[in-house]
Amino acid sequence: NRADDPFYWPAIKKKKKMLGKKWLLYTGDAKMAAITTRATIQKHEGDYLCPLSQVQLPREKLLDLIEPVLDDSIEFTAVMRKQADGQVVHIADAFEVELEQRATVNDELVTWTERQIVTCSHKYAQSQTQSLQTRLSHAQEEIAALNARKQGKPRLTTQSQYAVAVDTILAQRQVIGLLDIHYAITREIRHIRKYLDRPERIETHETIHVSASRNQSAIDHHIQTLGWRVYVTSAPVARLPLADAVVAYREQFTEERAFGRLKGKPLSLTPMYLAKDDHATGLVRLLSLGLRILSLLEFSVRQALEHEQSSLSGLYAGNPTRTTARPTAEKILAAFQDIILTLIQQPDSTLYFLTPLSETQSHILRLLGFGDSLYTGLTQLFSWNPAIQLHEP
Questions:
Q1: Chain-wide mean pLDDT for the chain?
Q2: Please, which residues bridge with residue 22 across strands?
Q3: What SS3 state is found at 323?
Q4: Which of 34-38, 188-192, 255-259, 378-382 holds the top average pLDDT?
């Protein structure tokens, strides 16, 4: 296995040659954010947009970036996005800072101005907050379980032993500093009488009980730091405004999901044994033809819906009135799965009947630039071309 870093520039270079244009925007994941890749794109008159990973931007530096927001000393931009149902919603807040970057590419120093777009996604923040609350609950339960006595379970007898166990739980659950730990020590003093050769004595028995409560002020402050991510781009504001940059990166998911079809329905590239490597290459290329058709189908319908400023209904089983402006290729094809061609054999002829088109099916054909005749003409195709033979399954 090799790192992906070296493969980005060759792919970008190929695309640049195909399109023959300068200053195209190349959007990629955090692996594309390697400083050498960013410098190479900039050197060859291109722009990039990608997020920084936690390795490239540790959490401590991220907290330094968002500190002005937490102090209400900086204003941020509301990022709006049009959803599949046509609604425009507030998805994130963002602000940006500029810094000068420099890197060496093929023994040549490259310098450029980079924009760091600091973004707080509402959904991402909500997801991280839910995860935090779950981790806090689990940590409290596990700390309380330290007090339970079970057969075969090592018993903690000193406060230092409890402290080590508690610190381990806090670290594993990533909630250090968010819980207050309380120790209750009960001392029982017993007077033991003299017995035979054993002298009279006093024994002290300590019982330690540990509990954890939530430090709500620390938790509230920590929640304010959730949902943030930093994107970097070399594109100037004139070509890529702040809000457009956030939305542009999110649109990248469409391309990634298309390739994801190779690992699931309907293309299903499953593990199999092939004797020759070129057979595997040929199989992937064959499936890529189907992938291109699915992607083109989906893109064409979505583009037509956007042009019409309309949406498509009837794609969701059990909810025929639900509409979407961004249907998937799978949903589009599923709308045609119930069509039936009926043949009636007569002594001197054969009759062909097709299931009538529904309003949804007819709408899809129009969005693709076809009329209903493309479908209804199938009966004439069969009747005009006797060479077409249908066989029972």
A1: 87
A2: none
A3: strand
A4: 34-38
Number of compact structural domains in the chain: 3
| 229 and 289 co-located in one domain | no
Task: Please tell me the predicted confidence (pLDDT) of residue 48.
Answer: 95
The region, left, alpha or beta by phi > 0 then psi within -120 to 50, assigned to residue 243 is alpha
Strands (E) across the chain are located at 25-27, 47-51, 77-82, 88-105, 108-121, 179-192, 201-214, 228-233, 312-313, 323-324, 341-345, 350-354
Identify the pLDDT of residue 85.
62
Give this prediction's pTM.
Answer: 0.69
Beta bridge partners of 118: 95, 230
Whether 271 and 364 share a structural domain: yes
Tens-digit pLDDT profile for residues 236-259: 999 999 999 998 888 665 566 777
Least confident of 98-112, 127-141, 347-361: 347-361
What is residue 254's three-state secondary structure?
A: helix
CA 240 to chain centre: 23
User: Which domain, by its residues, includes 204?
Assistant: 128-220
| pLDDT score of 180 more than 70 | yes
Asked if 337 and 330 count as a contact pair (C-beta separation under 8 A), the reply is no
Alpha carbon separation from 79 to 146, 166, 372 (Å, rounded): 46, 41, 41
H helices then E strands: how many in the chain?
Answer: 12, 12
Q: Which of 36-50, 193-207, 209-223, 296-310 has the least mean pLDDT?
A: 193-207
Q: Residues 302, 237: one domain?
A: no
Q: Are 94 and 120 in contact (CB under 8 A)?
A: yes
What are the Cα distances from residue 118, in Å, to 41, 63, 88, 141? 22, 11, 21, 36
Any domain includes 57: yes
The neighbouring-strand residues paired with 191 are 202
